[in-house]
Design brief:
133 residues; mainly alpha; 5 helices; 5% strand; flat; disordered C terminus
Amino acid sequence: MTASETPSYVRLRVEMVLEISDADALTGTALESIAADYTATGASAGDSAEERTHAEETVREDAAEALASLIDPFDLISQVPGVELAQASWSSETIDYDPDAEDWAAGEDGDEAHYGIEDNETDDEEGGGITER
C-alpha cells in the first residue's frame, strides 16, 4: 500500500455556544424531524412507537435535546469531497454563558487531557494549532 493509499484520520472538534431565541420553533422543528424519521422508516412496531414517544417527550422537555436531535455529523461533511465519516459523537447541554466574563473561554473544561492533546499550541492569525498524539 502506498502512502497515498494509506488512510489518514483527523479528529475535528467544534465547540459552539448557540442562543435559543425561539424554543417553540426549535421544539416544533425537532418534533417534525422525529415524525419524518419514523414515517420514512415505516416504523410501526411497539418498540419503535415507544422510542418515538420517548424522543418526542425528550425534545419537549429540553431545548438542548431538541437541538441535539437535529444535528447530524454526516450532514455536516457529506458534501466534502474525499472525506468519509468514520465515527461521530455529539452532545448538548444548557449552560450559563456570559461572553464578557474573563474566566469563560471555549475548551477550558479539560478536553485537552481527555483527548491526549499536547500542550504546544501555536499562536498565529488563523488561531492556535493543536498537535494530537
